[in-house]
From TrEMBL:
It comes from Pseudomonas chaetocerotis. GO terms for biological process: proteolysis. The keyword Hydrolase applies. InterPro entries: DUF922. This is DUF922 domain-containing Zn-dependent protease. It comes from the Bacteria. Residues 168-177 have a biased composition (Basic and acidic residues).
Amino acid sequence: MKRTIITLLPLLLWLALPTRAEVQEHLQEQYYDVQVVSGQSLNRALNEASPIRQNGQIYHAYARWQVQWNFWWREQRDGRCRIDLTRTRLNATITLPRLGGGDAQQRQRFAMYLNALREHELGHYRIGQAAAAKIDTALRQTPEYPSCAELQRQANQRANAILQRHIEQERQYDRQTGHGRTQGAWLTE
């Protein structure tokens, strides 16, 4: 009899723990090449080289992020269900230009511009980080439901609502910063 109690004790302790969570983040930078010759407009060279085009607009940098979530639940004998474990992943890629050629003044100007571009795109990434953290928290705080089907539906609705709010926050971020202009990501030439 003691052996059964000892064997069940770790399982009972694990079941009594609060919901466990794990947020994983992966950020990757990728580059496209820009060739500029002395005297050439840096802005024009970037516009010609940039692969980033949306709605008829050319952008010199871009951040793309995606949040994925999983959760595991435990069903009680009476059918009630609650989440025991969550795993939320944020995968992001920032695309930036890489300068080749140019004179010292162009390279210096590009370096300052690139820093501002990177900072702006990291702002997008931080919005993705906030989305992932809030989704994970919301999933862990999902209350118990009368059935696992209802739990799954409600948890995914909560996560998707948070995701949509952060996608809108990204749009507002671009409007407020003029797609990075107010942060120095702007070439006048």
